[in-house]
Amino acid sequence: MFCVVRSSMKFIAAASIGIVALMASVGAQAGTGAYMQTGKLTSQPIGHYEFCKREAAECNIVSRDTRALSLNNSNWQHIQAVNLSANERIKPMTDMEIYGVEEYWAYPTTVGDCEDYVLLKQRELAKAGIPMTDLLITVVRKPDGEGHAVLTVRTDRGDFVLDNLTDEVLRWDETDYTYLKRQAANNTGRWVTIESQDNLLVGAVK
């Protein structure tokens, strides 16, 4: 994926924004649009498939409990801190520059492509106790048509996106991406489609 250009926007003092401010911004009860609507099983990205062959344990997590994370001040600030820390620590670089191949998903140490940031953030949040069922690798299309990967965090306040192109953690419907597919919440080795909001609106009036 071509996803290494950083946004010029810097999210200042991310960790200072607490759950009270978040609730005020999304409302006391998140509406239907706050959550991605997923569809049928779909193809696994080739980079993730190859990653799973090397890191099988990361892709064999199956759960019947797919309740979304209950968001509180502590885990919200940790989510923001992990996003900011990874974005600052890892230098953006393409897989071709790093590995000499078009697509190679791996945990980064100093440099990485967008999906590498996602893997790092997913691992760090999982180590902090957030279930993998709520930490989903997601493939999107940017407004310029290029592919990109972000991490979706499923919460009871909506689905939030951690992105290497911005330090701000946004709810998915506050971004300008087209959402294509993501890991299934009940199986880290499977992927499902994401229904576009336009399609959902059309279906609602039929």
From TrEMBL:
In terms of superkingdom, the source organism counts as Bacteria
Keywords, ordered alphabetically: Signal
The residues the entry assigns to the signal sequence are 1-30
Q: Which Pfam families match?
A: Peptidase_C93
Q: Which InterPro entries match?
A: Transglutaminase-like_Cys_pept
PANTHER family per the UniProt record, alphabetical: BLR5470 PROTEIN (PTHR39327:SF1), PTHR39327
Q: What name has this protein been given in UniProt?
A: Transglutaminase-like cysteine peptidase
Organism equals Brucella pituitosa
